[in-house]
Amino acid sequence: MASPPDKSEEVGFRTVTDASVMTFGSLTGDYAQMHFDLDFGHAAGMGGPIAHGLLSAAWSVGALTLYAPERLALDSPNAYLAAFQIRFSRMVHIGDRFSLRWREGEFVSDPAFEGEHLEGSSTLDTAFETLNQRGEVTCSGAVSVCRAEEGDARGCGAPPEPMPVEAWSRDDVTTMLHADEMVERGPRGVSAGRTVTEADLVGWANFTGEQNPLYLNEEFARSGLFGSRIAPPMLTFCLGFGDYLRDLLSIRMPSAGFAGHLGDAWRFFAPVHVGDTIRVRHKPAAFKASKSRPGMGVVQFALQAENQRGEIVQDGRVAMMMTARSDA
Predict the structure, then answer these.
(1) Residues with Cβ within 8 Å of residue 197, at least 6 apart in sequence
(2) Which of 39, 40, 237, 270 is 20 to 30 A from residue 8's alpha carbon, by CA?
(3) What residue ranges do the domains of the chain occupy?
């Protein structure tokens, strides 16, 4: 991953509230119990409910949009958010403060995400980290922006073929699944689909601060690469994450030592417009035993978002730390 930012000025100060968590859940469909259940958070040793990891990701892009618009090339209708990656290092609780530090830097794919899916040309890369009120880094990552006039119009190469997803039913999973069993037996599928609406775009932009004219200004967007406004790519990923997570949380998993969400990475291939219907393909893709935490392992889940024409508009990876069998 890109090197941590220098100790530059912090921007984008926000305090995480119950309303923040509820709003993010309603925008993305991520209603995981750890974000909403006070008793669950304490029983799991988390000190109470924790904020969604992707809330920090979304606010990071929002803070760059508001306070460093040049890093996202907001003056060009031919520039777009082409790739993103984030690694979570500390839980964020209700009442914690969010702030962002950034620096100019090369986009370096994280080996934890098998970086081949992030390779591709880019013209403007920004490394960032977020901090809490104690000055502790809660996550770090990088954003990549492509400009059509400086190279390939897509910037990230041709989209992959749709990922094959084997038939799967949660009714077939009659026992508790451990991390090392996920690739063979874990949840996978293609979501029912969701049509992206005007409310999705405006709600997301207003809540996150990602007020990019490519998403909100029809006259600006019409003059550019995509011919009309597009949905924020971060929103597309978060919607896909919510679909995948509902299937994952529908099965029994051991809770002892569960460490949760480690990070995400995604890449843009084609725009999503208001009125497009997006389905998400997802499946567990890889398992690796943890060297630092015996009895735990990292599972990578692959996600692909496709539109109503069957075109892959985005792909990504999610890394989760989970309890493995003792003999894994």
Answers:
(1) 274, 275
(2) 237
(3) 11-323
pLDDT at 295: 86
∠ at Cα 257 (253, 262), nearest 5°? 85
Torsion over CA: 241, 243, 244, 246 (sign): positive
Amino acid occupying residue 124? L
- pTM (2 decimals)? 0.91
Are 300 and 317 spatial neighbours (Cβ–Cβ below 8 Å)? yes
Q: What is the DSSP string of 262-311?
A: EEEEEEE-S---TT-EEEEEEEEEEEEE-SSSTTEEEEEEEEEEE-TTS-
Closest CA to 282 of 235, 320, 245: 245
DSSP 172: G
Q: If residue 144 lies in a helix (H) or strand (E), which one and from where to where?
A: strand 137-147
- 255-287 pLDDT per residue, tens: 755 558 999 999 999 999 999 999 999 999 999
Got the DSSP string for 43-102?
HTTSSS-B--HHHHHHHHHHHHHHH-GGGGTTT-TTEEEEEEEEEE-S--BTT-EEEEEE
Question: Over the range 153-187, which residues count as b (16 or more CB within 10 Å of their CB) and which as e?
Answer: ebbbeebeeebeeeeeeeeebeeebbbbbbbeebb
Q: Which residue has the tokens 């990475």?
A: 265
CB atoms within 10 A of CB 237: 27
Query: What class, spelled out in words, does domain 11-323 have in CATH?
Result: alpha beta
Mind listing the pLDDT tens digit for each residue in 235-250? 999 999 999 999 998 8
Cα separation, 64 vs 228, whole angstroms: 23
Query: Is 327 or 31 the better-scoring residue by pLDDT?
Result: 31
Residue (of 268, 271, 276) closest to 196 by Cα position: 276
Start-to-end CA distance of the chain, whole Å, equals 28
The residue written with tokens 């104690």 in the block is: 134
Q: Of 257, 244, 247, which is closest to residue 178 (Cα–Cα)?
A: 257
Q: What is the pLDDT of residue 105?
A: 75
